[in-house]
Amino acid sequence: MNDLHRLPSLNALKAFVAVAEQGSISMAAQQLHVTHGAVSRQIKLLEEELNTSLLEKQGRGIKLTDAGQQLYQNCQPAFRTIAESCQQLRQQQQEKPLVLACSGSLLARWLIPRLPPLQQALPDLPLQLVTSADDERPQQQADLSLSFMNNPVADELLIPLEQERIGPVLATALAQQLDLDSNKAIPQLPLLHTLSRPQAWPDWARHNGIPPDSLHMGQGFPHLSYLLEAVLAGLGIGIAPEQLIRADLEQGRLLAPWGFVSTDAWLCVQIHNISQRQRIEKLTGLLATLS
Amino acid sequence: MNDLHRLPSLNALKAFVAVAEQGSISMAAQQLHVTHGAVSRQIKLLEEELNTSLLEKQGRGIKLTDAGQQLYQNCQPAFRTIAESCQQLRQQQQEKPLVLACSGSLLARWLIPRLPPLQQALPDLPLQLVTSADDERPQQQADLSLSFMNNPVADELLIPLEQERIGPVLATALAQQLDLDSNKAIPQLPLLHTLSRPQAWPDWARHNGIPPDSLHMGQGFPHLSYLLEAVLAGLGIGIAPEQLIRADLEQGRLLAPWGFVSTDAWLCVQIHNISQRQRIEKLTGLLATLS
DNA sequence: TCATTCATGTGAGAAATAATAACAGATGGC
DNA sequence: GCCATCTGTTATTATTTCTCACATGAATGA
Asked: Domain named HTH lysR-type: which ranges (chains A, B) (predicted)?
């Protein structure tokens, strides 16, 4: 058992080592980002704790006494060891890849398009992506996850990026076959849906003043990514978050003639590994600007 | 230049090392004389500073993570070095003799008689005595000095032991030759005095309602010790602090038929070397009981 | 010599940090 | 299931540390 309780004030000792290194209380204070008074006081405290005078005046400055020399020579390497050890730990943490979990559709249609600017802005951030099925909870071993969450509660570890906006979408080819003159077109068609978001169509219908019961539900898919493939293949009208199909709209593969409505869900980053919080917040801040 | 400012909270690190050593937060808290909550919090802070988790739950207790192991193995020797270095310094300070300066008369007639009980009560206190002439300021290199001081001001570094009481004294042999029936005897005799305390006789006279001018001043001596030798030799009446001649009175060598009066002076211990303050205060506390 | 500059020392009050007490949650033994 | 043990968390209190402002003492240069 080490006699940790017989240690003097370690902050005072740190101040002393700084003074010994700089040969001056004022310089040490500058190095430690405090006033010279604070350092002077700390030295006094340490001297009292050790019952020894460590510094003596010399001209306008100070110099170490013999006891001070001895203390410095013993403690300086110890502090260096500690500083290096901690620095090493931080370094290792920096080099460890940040594991981000998200669904396949979010990965393919939201995150991957943002990767180039991301890697450009944070070239030293090693990012490792893992997918979880849309209906699974984000995996435990990930440092952070990206997902749509209903009514996210305020929480330091939950960072909302943008509100979900959903709407019906269909392939451009399919649209040309149909007579799209109003909302009325919707009920007549087979509505593709996902098992992970069964409320998507009813929610959207309510938002648009359409009785949910009047909808003709068509094929269901296990995940959004399959549904979107089906929509692209012209199998019917799907419903999807605007965020995930923006590129398809811009490139004319899909159409969204009925627009989008905001839901209670938000696209959120969830922090799982608190020790990576700083890096995650840096990453998230950047993602927010890219949204 | 060492990166002292990149060090984490050293108290948190100390707490962590304690936890690593004990393998338990509660035990570490006990060792550090704080509650487990305090230690738990410190560990959390350290983990945040290092962006690393250091502990993980294991059953009801905790165990170190790999990062924690690494940190502990690096820092534990550093803390041991620091603790040992400080302990060594304290030890050296303990073994260094305490240098006490006082006048020859105080040394011979006040301090030396008290040395046996002193050494019995504090056998491990190495005491080195140096004399300074009565009229010199206590020497700078002494850790403390013992002297009579006029009107001592309240000060942490000045410890009054007892008020000075002075009075005329003469050798028993001389007293037998004289007719000592009252204060009236005084003016008729040659009054021995010291150059270091020229006011002693006038002060005493005023306290006793005798006109100072009516005194017959005799031989002067450079220091009290010589004066006392002269008094013992029957050369005349001297004036001296009661404290310094108590033994002579008790053993019948000297008489003080006119009694003693208190003066404004106190026998004081003055602390010169603040770093020895604790030991000096222990010594002084003991001296006060022996007075 | 005297003002000036530079470095340290000191005190009161403000700011930051750490500790406590009390409770919550989790685990393992009975 | 119940109890004892250990860790985590929070609001509050206590302590430490810092700052600011001024004082002191030593070298510097007119």
From this structure: 8-65
Instruction: Give the model confidence (pLDDT) of A102-123 as tens digits.
Output: 888 899 999 999 999 999 998 8
Contact criterion met (CB < 8 Å) for B32 and A85: no
**CB contact at 8 A, B98 and B69:** no
CB A203 within 8 A of CB A166: yes
Tell if B42 CB is < 7 Å from nucleic strand C.
yes
pLDDT exceeds cutoff 70 at B134: no
Residues A65 and B14: their CA atoms lie apart, in Å, by: 27
Question: Number of Cβ pairs closer than 8 Å across A and B?
Answer: 171
d(CA A206, CA A209): 5
| Angle at CA of residue B173, ends B172 and B179, nearest 5° | 85
Residue pLDDT, tens place only, A205-241: 888 888 888 888 888 998 898 999 999 998 889 999 9
Output the six-digit token pair for B170: 């003469």
**Amino acid A35 CA to nucleotide C12 C1' distance, rounded Å:** 16
Give me the mean pLDDT over the B257-281 stretch. 86
pLDDT confidence band for A181 (50 / 70 / 90):
low
Q: What topology does CATH give the domain A4-94? A: Arc Repressor Mutant, subunit A (1.10.10)
The structural domains of chain A, with segments of one domain joined by +, span 4-94, 98-290
- Could you tell me if B227 and B219 are in contact, meaning their C-beta atoms sit under 8 angstroms apart? no
Q: What is the CATH number of domain B4-95?
A: 1.10.10.10
Q: What is the dihedral of CA B178, B179, B185, B188, to 10 degrees?
A: -50
- Give the Cα separation of A208 and B11 in Å (integer): 61
At B160, which helix (H) or strand (E)? strand B158-171
What number of CA atoms fall less than 13 Å from residue A140's CA on the CB side? 0
pLDDT digits (tens, 9 = 90+) for A76-110: 999 999 999 999 999 888 888 988 988 888 999 99
Q: Is the pLDDT of residue A140 over 70?
A: no
